[in-house]
Design brief:
- The complex is a heterodimer of chains A (70) and B (415).
- Chain A has 70 residues and is α+β, with helices and mostly antiparallel strands.
- Chain A has three helices and four strands; from the N terminus they run βαββαβα.
- Chain A has one domain: 2-Layer Sandwich (Alpha-Beta Plaits), CATH 3.30.70.
- Chain A is globular.
- Helices cover 49% and strands 8% of the residues of chain B.
- The termini of chain B are far apart.
- The chains are: A alpha+beta (70), B alpha+beta (415).
- Chains A and B meet through helix 1 and helix 2 of A and helix 6, helix 15 and helix 17 of B.
Amino acid sequence: MRVVVDLNRCQAYAQCCYAAPERFVLQGDEILAYDPAPPAAERAAIDRAVQACPVRAIRVEHDETAERAA
Amino acid sequence: MTDTDGTLFAQVRDPENRADPYPLYTRLRAQPVARQDDGTWVASGYAAIRALLHDPRVSSEDLPPAEHPATGNPIKDFFVNPIKDWITDRHRPFIFRDPPDHGLLRRQVMGQFTVARVRGMKRRTEALVDECLRARAGATRFDLVDDLAYPLPVTVICEMLGVPREDEARFHAWATQLATALEPESRNDEDLRARNTETFDAIAAYMRDLIREKRRAPADDMLSGLATTKDAQAGRMSDPDLVATAILLLIAGHETTVNLITNGMLTLLRHPDELARLRADPERAPRVIEELLRYEPPVHFRTRLTRAPIPVGDVTIPEGVPLVLLFAAGNRDPARFPDPDRFDPDREDNQHFGFGGALHYCVGAPLARIEAEAALTALVARLREPRLVEDPPPYRAGASLRGPERLLLDIRGIA
């Protein structure tokens, strides 16, 4: 699973940090740090983050082959 | 063609139209920013609302001073004056403040509304939902409002704040009473206004005592944190601000979530295929909830005040006028959302106004999502063959905080 956040679009609403706190962290007031390759097991939490983003800045690409292998 | 009826927003506030205000919103959107006959301006188009939400000339400090005479303006007289009695002369909570005060107060609240604390409520919320459902085991009639949607948020917000469990019932009554101050009926009802002032004084006195207690023996809760933490810039929050903040969090955490849960179940019952899909796949809940926040939001509008003339599209909103941001109309704008009147959890790019936006974006959004998910997934899984007894259900008076007064369901028991 590959996560890409459009940081130009991100407005630091921090909703992803509540949805998937292991993978999204707001540093200071507005800089988002995130894990671009979270484990497949966290798919539900990542999906919550995607859905909760008020500006829809988070995109997820699922690599089905890699996930089957894992 | 432009709809020139300048009473559309008055019709929105008319209880007759509470069950289905959406046709009025469609008419309002014909003119995305429109002046009403009473001097109020209403933004109902998505792009206009979004621009105004981010515009620093749009102020949230729309409460007039207490000695302000009746304006003849329904927004102020119906909505604003009734609540000013118990807020303006005391301390405004940060929902009614602009930068820089707003930012300082909000940051201190966010400092306590931590990821760990909110996430910590997830299991607790699920257990509370389970408690509510067990209490009604064997029932064949269920009132979603009284049996779950109302008691759940009050317990959650009281636990977050650190209000002792034995005082929850009083809080419930206070919040219910203070919410009536937002209703048009409270304008001319001296008794109601007197009761609201009394209630504010009672809750403020209680809060002052509780804050003193939290300072003496801090616990792991938001009030203890707010009462004892010193902000680098703002210092320690003053007692009046602390009281105003606590009351805001209590009411906001309470009167809105009940609508999200109740409107949510109502919408699912009106779309049985979606109810079945959620039952079969609880992981659809986040999509369902975001679409509910667009399609049937708990808060339909908020009022602001213009601090300068603001050009929007081909009109200019004058300075110093009440401005309504009609979120629920923007959420159904066909220029932004394809097929907007369709409830479609698979909708992509769902940038709704369900939690407002910009500086005042709902502080409690993550908590509301947790509560709605716990409630809706449990309801669809455990209520056996739920059927609406009345459709539409009776609504509470509020046009902004809009939701059913009760939602009676016939069921064949609770699993």
